[in-house]
Amino acid sequence: MLLRRLFRRYRRPPRQLGQAYRSATYRPLLPSQVRMRRFTRVGFARRGVDPAEVAAFLDQVAGDLARAYNELATVREQNARIKDALRRWQSRQSTTAHRLADR
């Protein structure tokens, strides 16, 4: 019961994806930073790590992942549009080549 009250205090409202403000100096996390991250231990009354520090880190990781997935979706859309345009261009070129060959 005590832990539930403790974690409720540190719970943050969910953010909307793609609307987080980032300063110009913000650098996204690198995979090595995530792997090597160590949290500070809390005092003698509790065991473990500081929940606020963990929550802040998880928010940052979640934001970076959301941004990466959004960029990946954008790139996939662009890739599909480029492939479609290339197919249309190739089909137009093949009909032109057939016409020239028939002459």
Notes on the structure:
- The structure is a single chain.
- The longest helix has 52 residues, at 51-102.
- It contains 3 helices and no strands.
- The mean pLDDT is 77.
- The termini are far apart.
- The protein has 103 residues and is an all-alpha fold.
- The radius of gyration is 25 Å and the shape is rod-shaped.
Radius of gyration from the alpha-carbon trace, in angstroms: 25 Å
Order of helices and strands: HHH
Which segments are poorly predicted (pLDDT under 50) over 5 or more consecutive residues? none
In what range is the share of β-strand residues? Answer: under 5%
- Characterize the biggest β-sheet: none
Number of strands: 0
Distance between the termini: 87 Å
Task: Give the helix/strand layout.
Blueprint: H1 2-10, H2 31-36, H3 51-102
Please name the defining characteristics of this protein.
103 residues; mainly alpha
Short structural summary:
This protein is mostly helical. The protein contains three helices and no strands. Helices cover 65% and strands 0% of the residues.
